[in-house]
Design brief:
This protein is an alpha/beta fold. It contains seven helices and nine strands. Strands 3-4-5-2-1-6-7-9-8 form a nine-stranded mixed β-sheet, sandwiched between helices. Strand 3 and strand 4 form a beta hairpin. The radius of gyration is 16 Å and the shape is globular.
């Protein structure tokens, strides 16, 4: 998936993937991470998700990575914040109280630039990447976060019936990426109402990845 694909989505406002409220699976299962107030949570490929609003309002600090500058400009506008913009290596760093967003190629984001995180929330990253990129992504994510515990939300469906994104992520694939560094705990698997895009039967799977 070329970066131009996502840039065009945001430029054309083709963002059906953007939910209009905080994700209910996040709200229901976030406490499994057992985080204290003030803990810092990393959201890879975050867009302008309202999950960020929910985390900030519940006393957590947020770090995010996103390719689209448009998405992040809209995020801060909707948060009512005026970010400070600086350069951090090959990425742009937008910061305000309790929030740091790094705009650019996530593979250019280093552990040093990101800084310490207490947990990862991945609802939109793994499912957004084609298969040939996912192994590289998961290895990079583990490296820059030092294997921080993770709440992971995936879709699973017959990839022959629809092209991603979001891509189908099987339970076996989650295990291939993460079983060597985490205890894998499946929390719930639910049917997507009406199917993916209203036509393809799909399940949404929630995982708690506990650091070994």
């Amino acid at each position: 998936m070329e970066p131009s694909f996502w840039h065009q989505k945001w430029e054309k406002n083709e963002i059906a993937f953007h939910e209009r409220e905080a994700n209910q699976l996040l709200v229901q299962y976030f406490d499994r991470l057992s985080l204290e107030e003030g803990s810092r949570v990393f959201l890879p490929l975050c867009g302008k998700t309202l999950d960020i609003h929910w985390m900030l309002s519940n006393g957590y600090r947020v770090a995010g990575a996103e390719l689209s500058k448009i998405a992040i400009q809209q995020l801060f506008k909707e948060l009512g914040m005026e970010p400070t913009l600086s350069k951090a290596g090959e990425v742009d760093h937008y910061s305000a109280e309790n929030i740091d967003i790094f705009v650019g190629d996530i593979f250019a984001l280093s552990r040093k630039t990101l800084g310490p995180v207490d947990a990862i929330y991945d609802r939109a990253a793994l499912v957004a990447l084609p298969e040939e990129t996912r192994r590289r992504y998961t290895a990079h994510l583990r490296e820059i976060t030092e294997n921080a515990p993770q709440l992971l939300i995936c879709y699973e469906y017959d990839q022959n019936l629809a092209a991603g994104p979001p891509f189908s992520i099987s339970n076996e694939e989650v295990e291939r990426h993460y079983k060597d560094r985490y205890g894998l705990n499946p929390l719930i698997s639910i049917n997507v109402p009406g199917g993916l895009r209203g036509k393809v039967p799909a399940q949404e799977n929630v995982w708690w990845l506990k650091k070994l």
